[in-house]
Structure formats: C-alpha cells, structure tokens
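re: ur question from the group chat, yeah i did fold both. here u go
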Amino acid sequence: MDSNSEIEVFVNCEVYHVLSDWVKLNLNNDMIFNIGANRIEIIIRGSKYKMVLIDAGKKLSQKKYLEDIKDHLTEYKKNTFPELPDGVFKKKSKTPYPYILPLKDGKIDAVKQYNTLKCIADTKTFLLTSEQLHIYAHHLNSSQMMCYNFFRPFISEDGTPTRELFSILQTVGIPVSFSDNARCFFEYEQEEREWQGERTNNSKGTNFDFYLRSGDVEIFFEIKYTEDGFGIFQKDKNELLRHQNKYDSFYSDKLANCPALKKKVEYGEEFRKNYQLLRNTIRATSRNKYVVFVYDANNPHAYNQLNQFLSEYIADEYKKNVVAIEWQKLVLASHPDQVFEFWNKYLNYEL
C-alpha cells in the first residue's frame, strides 16, 4: 500500500463515539489516531484511514449498501486475482457474477485458495470441513469466510486461541481472560443434553459462526456482513406449522427461563420476526455466558433490527452479556497487519 494513500472508512455516528473512547488503548508505534469533530483519522505505518461519519440507520438503503459492497468486492477480485474468471451463485447456476469465485476445482479448494487472507495462507490446518462450509462460501461477501478470516490468525493449529485474541476481545468490552483450558471452534453446535431438543428430523439446531470457551466463560458469536438483517422464517403454512411445533417442544421453556430476556416471547409474529436473535440470546443462561452479534456498522437492516431488539428485549442486568459489536470496531482493536488486509477486503468500500 502506498504510504501516501488515503482510505475512507464509513461508520455510523454511534460507532464513532464508542471509538473515540477506546482508540487511545490501542496507541502504539504502528498506529496514530487523530480524533476530530466529525471523523477519526488513523495512520497505520504511514497509510491514512479516514473514518467519515454517516448514520447507517437513516441515510442508506439496503439495496444501495449491497450494491456498493458488491462493486467493491468486484474490484478487489479483479485486482487481487486478475486471472480468475467469474463464478456462479451456486453449483447448478449458469449466470456468472464478478464478486463470486469459480468452483472449477471444488468449493473447498476455491475457498481455501482464494477466499482466505494471505495472513493465514501458511496455516497448516483449515479449521472448516467441507460439510461445514456454507453453500455460498465461495462468494467474496460470505460472512462465514469473513468470520474465518478474522479469527483464524489468532488460533493455533490445535484450535487453541492465542492470548492476542483475548486482548482484542477485552478491548471491545468482553471481559474474558486466557486460561489453560481455552478452546474455540467455528460452526459450533452445543452438544449438552439440554440443547438436544433443538434438533429434529426436519430441523437443525443452532450453529454459531464462532465459539470461545475459557475457564467458566463461554462466548457465542453470530456473524453478519451483507445479509438482509437477522433470520426470520416465512409465513408459509408448512413453515409456520414446523416452527409452532418447535416452539412448543423446545423454545417455549428456553425463552421463559432465559434471564437475559425482559419477558417471555409467545409464539406469533413477535417470535417470527426475531427468530434468529431470540434463539441465539437464549444461550445467555448465566452471567458468565455471552452472546455477541458482530455486524457491519453500515448494514441498515442489521443495524436497525439488532439495536431495536437489544433495546426492547434484553434485561438491563444482561446488557453486557448480549451485545452488538461492529466489524469496524473489532478490526481496529486487532493487529495492524490485520487492519490492512482484512479492512482492504471487506470494509474498504465507498458508499
């Protein structure tokens, strides 16, 4: 990257105010922060990152946001892998798209070779199996691969998280400390008997994009990037019946006994519209369990849906256990090398 280059990074006003409080914790020889009235300028090894303020909840349409990121990823692919042809949406699709990787050698090979960052290219172990890869993992805007690319540099080959990961999480407000039994997993599903009822013959349990355990602390991560908010289920007759049965047999008791929720959510439109947020939140069964929603600060639907949910449903005493963290904040808390490569791929877009 040219030392005189300037990269404008757009975040919403709420993120800016949070950043202005904690960036001083990251001051070191590689980073300089200049905090102004309407922007933060970060100089990392001579390159300037200007964070220009917008209000994600009011000034962007979801359509424009998605188009802008696809345009950015198209340019990223063209500049990073100029020899690569465009890929198709999924295996049997025919129309190619410039922000999607080709599947000539199979999805896992395409993902490992082209959808992982250079900073983890030398890692010996790919910590996702072919069965765990999402159907759209070969898309450059895959949130699964975004999650993998962020956390993998801070995980040893045997799956043990490094101390640096704990430092990052502490910087963004998650009070977890390194312990000798610390472990982490991608695509994690709870195996305890009390959660087995979530899986049925025609329905899977909840897979968390990333999971971290250290001592008696557990952290469940739900990761979003360009998704249209958090998951709901359709009003289709079969879907309504399937989820009604699952609510009656499993979610009803979990929701009623979850201390993180202000109230029990009955089956109906309220449950349908907050389905994914609720089924993640019920993991916060005690004060040593955390549910962390990571999202792009500029994603309008994710921003609005998540902040409304946290305000309306999370009990005051659990507001530090069920939290939203913007990608922009999380990345800036990490190593300067991570800021360069990760930000350039995922967050260095223009709106």
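okk and heres the other one u asked abt
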Amino acid sequence: MKFIKSFTFGTTILVFFLITVQLVLWFGEGGWLATIAKQNNFLELEKAVQEDEEILLKLRAEARDLQEGHRSIEERARFQHGMLEKGEVFIQLRP
C-alpha cells in the first residue's frame, strides 16, 4: 500500500512522458518501423539499379559493336533475318 501512496503526480507525468517518447520512437514518422520499411525499399531500389546498369552495359557494348564495323551488322543479319551471301549454302544440323 505504501507504494501506491508514494505514486505522485510527478511520477505520473514522468511515466506518461516516457511512454510518449517510446511511442514516437517506434511508430513516429522517423521511428524504427518507418526506418526498417525505408531500408527494405532502399534495398529493392538498389537491386533494380544494378539490373538497369547491367542492361546499360550490354546496350553500350552492342552500340560500340555497331559503330566499329560492318561485321556485327552482317552477323545480326545472318542470325536474326537468315540472310546469306551470294554463293553460300545454308546447312542446318539437328541433333
């Protein structure tokens, strides 16, 4: 009973303040839950950027090949469009 009697107004204010601070730290705009969600979003965005960079490197290599000479153009024409030079015979082997 003595503990309940010593529970003063100042103690009540202090407990209320501590609970409020904890709620803000956990559930506030910059709290732990928001930070974890932003960190997960950041990881997803970082992965997407890495995939985009890989695609960009492939496109740059392809553009460089096209700028360097006609060999890459000829290769594309052969494989994508089935073009042959004069006097060539196309033989396809099936396993």
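fwiw on the second one: Residues 2-81 form one domain. The two ends are 92 Å apart (CA to CA). idk if thats what u expected
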